[in-house]
Amino acid sequence: DLPVIDGQLMLRDLAVGTTETDQLAEVELDLNLQGLRLSPEQKLSAKRLDSRLFARALPGLALLEARLQTEVLADLADVSLQTTGLAIDAELTLDNEPQSPLTANYSGDLLYQQSVGRLSMLEAELTVDQAQLAADVVFAGLAPDDAWTANGNLALGAIDLAQMLAQWGVEMPELPSDGLRELAFSSAFRADQTELGFDGLELLLDGQTVSGDITLQLTEAFPAIRASLYSPAFSVNNYLPQQHNNDDDLVADTAAQDQHQEVPLLTPATQAWLRTLDAEVEARINTLTYQQWDLADVVVRFQAAGGLLAVPELKLRAFDGRLDADGSLDIQGSQPVVSARLDASDLQIKPLLNLLGVKPRLSGKGNLQADLTTSGNQYDDLIANLAGTAATRLEDGVVQGVDVGYWLRRANAQIKGGDVTAVDRAETDFSALTASAVIESGRVQSDDLDLRAPLFRVSGNGYFDLPTEQIDYRVAASVVDSLEGQGGRDLQELRGITIPVLITGRFDNPQVRLDMQRILRDAAEGQIRERIEQELDRHLREDAPARQLLDRFLR
What we know:
By secondary structure, this protein is of the alpha+beta class. About 15% of the residues lie in helices and about 55% in strands. It has 8 helices and 26 strands.
């Protein structure tokens, strides 16, 4: 039998020098074991282990000072180790942040059992500056021939993420003052050689909660992401970069717009990274707030694999209606290919266009469908290669940019040799509007505009060429019997006459003019027709066969 051994061990000013990339690393270690005891049963214990470490110029660390204190119980026969009251305090300075030392503290108990290949971290707490992480984790399968696993629970106390990133020198866009000010989470934790999972995740971000499950499938490249997330209410406004509308910013924005055609949308490095992305993510949000809009019952699914990124499902309720969309970005070939489909029903069109970043010149409630594709890696290419179809059907709205009633009054005045005063109201009310378009090579061709207003009817055909920003569109307006609406009673003289309005030129400065040659010709034909009808009324009864034949001819 081994005798009982009692005593203490002290190592002081133990210095070690190493070289790393021709830089000398200095390491000093003090070790103090008090109440050291080795029993005949090969159990080794120390009532107090006190160790101090000082290191300078280690890889990535300019300076490290640490102290470890614990009570130790080891079984040399069973090869097990247990610590009680383990505490580690450290202060470290990173190479790239010499003026910002980090303070780290660890407390908890360790239990290692070689016979079962298990290491337990019990009631562990790690604090780095203001961040505090609590954990209970068990590592199993640590024997040489076993596959290791880890299971437990993690919890991160609330931290001011914006302040922490600033302290660490991480550059961030300017966010609203309330953005990234509170971050905390708790989750069950599991890991093995192939997967890292967070089950029952509860995330708190600036007072907003997100729950769900996240799994990272570990591969040789970038981990594959599988996630299912839910939030009862979430606002992205605190995470949108601040916009400053001073003169310098306006000049910068204009310069950026002038140069955006030359800048690749996806750099080669970004494309290479996206080709490695493997993800399947589903998110459900009861109420999503973006800028001034509240979107309800949001469901979005995202998939990525082999260079194909897709949103196979996007559904939400907004603007008094519903929106259903999907899209994809294919970067498997030499040029990115983009596709998008939109089906909006029973909603207000103006806020939808605002949400999509399109300057709204149209309002009303109804439906909008679009199915679009394009390709290219620069803005100009995406516009030039745009193709697809679009259609809309709206009720009780306004078309901005043209006042059809004004142009009718102007046509009437010019026929009479007079003039009409222009008005500031450059818009047209309608009770119903339908239109469709076919897009090829960036040219939007629309030949079936049908606008109905109380006073007049409008049809239209022509094109909008997006690459050259040119418009060539013909609108034909005709007055109907109703005396209500834009224009008043003075337009009744135009009944039966079609008033053509030509819209041509650049998008930012379109030219609107009357086709007076056509108007005068139609007016003359109308007067001749009216004179003939008067003569027929004088000489032929309405039921006379000859009268009926002539009526059909005049129509």
